[in-house]
Please model this.
Amino acid sequence: MASEADVLSALAAYREHIGRANHRAMSVLIPRAESVSADDPDLFESPEKEEETRLDYVLRLVGAPEENAQPPIERPSDALKYWDVLAPQLALDGASRHSDPEWRAAKREVYTSAILQGLSRFECPPEQGPGWRMLRDTTEQLIFWKGQGVDRNLASADSLAERTQNRRRSGRYILEQTYGHKQKYDVAAGFMCGSGNESTSYIVYSRPKGDANQAWSWRYVAFLGQFGIGVFNDVIALLDWYQKYGEPDERDFTADAEVFAP
Model:
């Protein structure tokens, strides 16, 4: 079983890797957005309007909220200038973390309780076991864990609990939905923790098939549809795989045709 220190170290390495990859992408895309020319010279009524369009594109690119970010992105180059501060705010380092510790504590308690209540409805074996926005939203990328949501209203605990309990899945259901899985594992139960266009992720209570002496334990499953399935024994192995999953290269970095798109 991985220790808390090992998991935190793996998470830090994951965020550093994703942050570097996204910074590399933005270092190509943002200068292009600043320099590209519109095909139609009469498209904008003024130079100011053209620059506003460039800025809007960059704000969408980095996923800046409507109220912008802190420090504010007032020109495209600011996204790179303040990268170290902005990346954690905008989940450009691969993880989204709410800034309010009270919110996090309240949601974590509700989420954990709901998961345990949901799983308690299944009969599990008694053994104990260890327990860039554009790419994410427009490709086959898998968001492995979608977390507790973004609602700042702490009074919405009942809604979070209901949604979370509804994520529970029987072992039979999980095996039916993740072909290629049942040949290797027995699954008692689990819950769906994330998804992508054709992908789904689960945290499951399972053991390798064919050996009754094997202990049941929690595992992490990434089902990628036609692209196969990944099963990981701990968070460290999961993060090591996830940080490289679907990682783009410079051939994927195009801005010229999108900055002035309607």
In short: The longest strand covers residues 185-195. The chain has a mean pLDDT of 78. Residues 101-227 form one domain.
